[in-house]
Amino acid sequence: MTWADRLSPQVRSLPPSGIRRFFDIVAEMKGVVSLGVGEPDFVTPWHIRESCVYGLQQGYTAYTSNYGLLELRHEITKLFERQYGVSYDHRREALVTVGVSEALDLAMRAILTPGDEVLIPEPCYVSYTACVSLAGGVPVTVPTLMENEFRVTVEQLEALVTPRTKALLIGYPNNPTGAIMPKEELASIADFAKKHDLIVISDEIYGDLTYSGTHTCFSSLPDMRDRTILLNGFSKAYAMTGWRIGYALSNPDFIAAMNKIHQYTMLCAPVTAQIAAIEALKNGQCAKEQMLREYNRRRRLMVDGLKKIGLSCFEPKGAFYIFPSIKETGLTSLEFAEELLKKEKVAIVPGDAFGTSGEGFVRCSYASSTANLTEALTRIERFVKNYL
Amino acid sequence: MLELLELLEKDPTLTVDQMATMLAKPKEEIAREIKRLESEKIIVKFQTVVDWEKVGIDRVSAIIEVKITPQREVGFDAIAERIYRFPEVRNLYLMSGAFDLMVMVEGKNLKEVSRFVSTKLSTIEGVLSTTTHFMLKMYKEAGVILDDKEDDRRLVVSP
Predict the structure, then answer these.
(1) Helix (H, G, I), strand (E, B), or coil: what is residue B67?
(2) Is A245 helix (H, G, I), strand (E, B) or coil?
(3) Which residue has the higher pLDDT, A257 or B48?
(4) Interval B8-26 mean pLDDT
(5) What mean pLDDT value characterizes chain A?
(6) Which pLDDT score is estimated for A25?
(7) What are phi and psi of B32, to 5 degrees?
């Protein structure tokens, strides 16, 4: 009997993140141009960092309320009122967490009974299915197609819903595809959720990075506020990934339940990050818009570049990823990614890291400088020529 | 046009093709627009910021506060022009407060700059007084931090 045999079977059966596997290969190489990074290439705007330093000088080093600093929760709910016209009581309906990752875990553990099914459109962020499994639930993935711009349809959901389905977990704008859901389509998803009495967990971390039209907040749809656990954070829009700060908004019962787990396992999000997040919400609008414009220009550069190379790809409408198909090369996602790395030293992420329906695609992040993107495109072109 | 300027101000080395793609505009339109902006002097100049110290070339810069007597009809402008025509003058601003003109001068060494101040600048008619401050260290120039230690610290691959 080894130590590994003593692990919980649930954890043992959990596959390691596909990204992690690829990371180990990349980590050893030098001179790599990376399009594999799932975070902004901007450093957190200085005024936000500076406010954290000031907070430390002022002695903000203690625990905060489990729910998070009241001022931060208030700023968060004010933002939702202002931006989407949806009101939350900041005293009872908002919970500050250690990134959206923690909020997602809390949401799953708070609502799932072992055996409950959760519908998840796929390709999707790596932790969605894992968090459902860890909470004892059964992830039921719904493959989305490039032909439909990676949007999920009610027909697809209807085909997979069962009496055991408890919730629907969506993340739009989507990592890795860059897909968004138009308001009308979200509205029909809302009707579907209501019809089957499902809880909707909506991860809107990329909401502010929407390049075509405006982002629709799921809880702003009619009758959806209380049914939705809305997840968001500061990592992407304010370039604050390493601060680990996010939040959940929902009805008081769900938030109280999530807080119950949070208080025993995490106690509170780091106070330093909470102070910085207040500054981000109060004065970060301008820097945020600047980053959005910059990403949009790079997005166009990438779409154009990849199309010229001859890879078919859907024009992403949000986040900072582009998800071209590499099927024409005859390689699998992993082969493509590994060969590209070995031959041209460009790091991308194989699409199957985001679920089996991501096979045949690769994720390229355009959160990188124009010079880097141009260099990467040149190298990818040289590489792809051997196969097309 | 605003976005084109924003792009050019940050990186004038982009090609017309790249800018056209990034702004989702036809190439011809971008080329025409840049020409127009240049001819109307909205784009004043494409310039390169050089850290001369790194090439081993020493230069001395000074900020000089100048008090002058404004002249009838032309105010401060005539004296300002006499000053900014000197190639040694890098920047010149009319200021509010305790003095009138702020002159930024660059020279090979201390002597050269002080000679400029004593023989050229302070002898101009209408110049009442000068106060020279020599710069000791340059941290940021034209919006660029010269010795930026903020590297890309991200992992090469992350979810």
Answers:
(1) strand
(2) coil
(3) A257
(4) 94
(5) 95
(6) 77
(7) -65, -45
> What pTM does this model have?
0.91
Closest to A150 measured CA to CA, from A176, A132, A186, A184? A176
Rounded to whole angstroms, the Cα distance separating A313 from A324 reads 4
Residue of B9, B30, B140, B156 to mutate for A, most A C-beta atoms under 10 A: B156
> Given pLDDT bands bounded at 50, 70 and 90, which one contains residue B99?
very high
Length reported for chain A:
388
> Which is nearest to A179 in space by CA: A225, A148, A154?
A148
Query: In which element (H, E) is residue A46 found?
Result: helix A46-57
- What CATH number matches the domain at A4-44+286-385, 2.60.40.10, 3.90.1150.10, 3.40.50.720, 2.70.130.10? 3.90.1150.10
Structure tokens at A130: 């894992």
CATH 3.40.640.10 fits domain A46-283: yes
Of the partner residues A39, A293, A374, the one whose CB lies closest to the CB of residue B158: A39
Which of A29, A32, A37 has the most B C-beta neighbours within 10 Å, making it the best mutation to test the interface with B? A37
Q: Do A347 and B157 touch (CB under 8 A)?
A: yes
Per-residue pLDDT at A20 exceeds 80 = no
Token pair of A127, please?
Answer: 């932790």
Q: At A215, list the tokens.
A: 């982002």
| pLDDT the model gives residue B159 | 85
Taking only the tens place, the pLDDT of each residue in A43-73 is 999 999 999 999 999 999 999 999 999 999 9
Token pair, residue B105, equals 């001068």
Q: What are the sequence ranges of the domains in chain A?
A: 4-44+286-385, 46-283
Q: What is the DSSP string of A143-162?
A: E--GGGTT---HHHHHHH--
Candidate CATH numbers 3.40.50.1820, 3.30.70.920, 3.30.565.10, 2.40.400.10; the one for domain B52-137:
3.30.70.920
Q: What are phi and psi of A169, to 5 degrees?
A: -115, 115
Q: Give the Cα separation of A291 and A269 in Å (integer).
A: 26
Has residue A23 got a pLDDT over 80? no
pLDDT given for residue A152 in this prediction:
98
What pLDDT is attached to residue A72?
A: 98
ipTM for the complex? Answer: 0.80
